[in-house]
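Researcher: Next sequence.
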Amino acid sequence: MKKRKLGRGGLEVSALGLGCMGMSEFYAGASEPEALATIHRALELGVTLLDTADMYGPFKNEELVGRAIRDRRDRVVLATKFGNMRGADGAFLGVSGKPDYVRQACDASLRRLGTDHIDLYYQHRVDRTVPIEDTVGAMAELVRAGKVRHLGLSEASPATIRRANAVHPIAALQTEYSLWTRDPEDDILPTVRELGISFVAYSPLGRGFLSGQIRRPEDLPEGDFRRNNPRFQGENFQRNLDLVDRVRAIAAERKVPPSQLALAWVLSRGPDVVPIPGTKRRKYLEENAAAVAIRLTPDELRRIEAVAPRGAFQGTRYAAEGMTRVHL
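Model: Next structure:
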């Protein structure tokens, strides 16, 4: 497994991380024994960056990750997030970046994870009612207290990133990025590169669409949140499937699964980009990890660009309410 650096603070991680969200919520078919085995297999393969959040489950995903790494904490770069508030019943209660909430959320995450420090602590969503300077100021206090090692932001705008980085160095900006979500190329990637901040790409497989295994909306189980995602609905679904099939054709020529081609493309965006594909099964973890060894040729990159150019995929990446909480 190759390594990459996050930010200028010396945080080294595997070139590809593991998103743990789906092990507890949002995607159907989770199994705790298989999820634990998947995390352990990831560490065996040299995947060191594990990504979770307090809202996943809610709260259960951090507990799951904590159990998985209890006897191997020194092999993990542990990333979690705060800011999306949820009740014990799963209800969404809004977004908070209030300093008191930051401190409370961190202590609660440390308890659930069973650790004395978090390697990378993200603000999951920006609270537009609280100055980012106040939120990051509280996060910086956690660094000084030894509870957190490095800071991150998720789905923040260039202006917010600049203001936050002026308070305390930001190691990583996490945002959705893949062949079907390329809007970070407009202003996010240029901004973080100017500031020496690395980019962590979540949903680098387009929420599974780029794997080529979802052929009909009915392939998504009942209760799967993607059924409410505009890209998986109506005419958008078929148009997006046509684009995926063009990517599949290039992958077939290379004799690799389309998922590996899609991940290799994200990895090719630069040494400061770290994709964190999520999976809850060892089979797909192993397939994803193998993408690190694929080096796309200039011709392949040109062909991928031709069949899946920026803006080609149809539909917003979240439903209307979710879109109000990104790029703030």
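Model: Residues 29 and 82 are 25 Å apart (CA to CA). The two ends are 34 Å apart (CA to CA).
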